[in-house]
């Protein structure tokens, strides 16, 4: 096992390739020991989490608005998998819709970065 593999991942999920690249680059510049896993959709995130259920990430940074599987859909899936309490999720969005943000908190998001 390499040193990088011994640290849990930080998962970044965004359907915008530009935003995904930006957040991943910013995290890598922080010289964190955690590997950054970049996923381009909510469905890809759910699939990755199921495949890595024995090695959960230390953090998920996720876009709110993705199609067809939104960040809220991923939160619901994480709750159904029983891993939401073990993995903090920070939602990223340009949307300031209080109702949607409230729903995200109700589903288990730790915070929102607008």
Describe the structure.
There is one protein chain. This protein has 114 residues and is an alpha/beta fold. It has helices at residues 17-29, 42-51, 71-81, 98-107, and strands at 10-13, 36-39, 59-63, 89-92, 111-113.
Question: What's the gist of this structure?
Answer:
With 114 residues, the chain is an alpha/beta fold.
Key words describing this protein structure:
single chain; 114 residues; alpha/beta; 5-stranded parallel sheet; 4 helices; 5 strands; 18% strand
Low-pLDDT sequence parts = none
Number of helices: 4
Nearest-angstrom radius of gyration?
13 Å
Number of strands: 5
Give the N-terminus to C-terminus distance in angstroms: 37 Å
Q: What is the averaged pLDDT score?
A: 92
Q: What share of the residues does DSSP label as strand, in percent?
A: 15-25%
Strand order of the largest sheet: 2-1-3-4-5
Q: Helices, strands, pairings?
A:
Blueprint: E1 10-13, H1 17-29, E2 36-39, H2 42-51, E3 59-63, H3 71-81, E4 89-92, H4 98-107, E5 111-113
Parallel strand pairs: 1-2, 1-3, 3-4, 4-5
Helix pairs in contact: 2-3
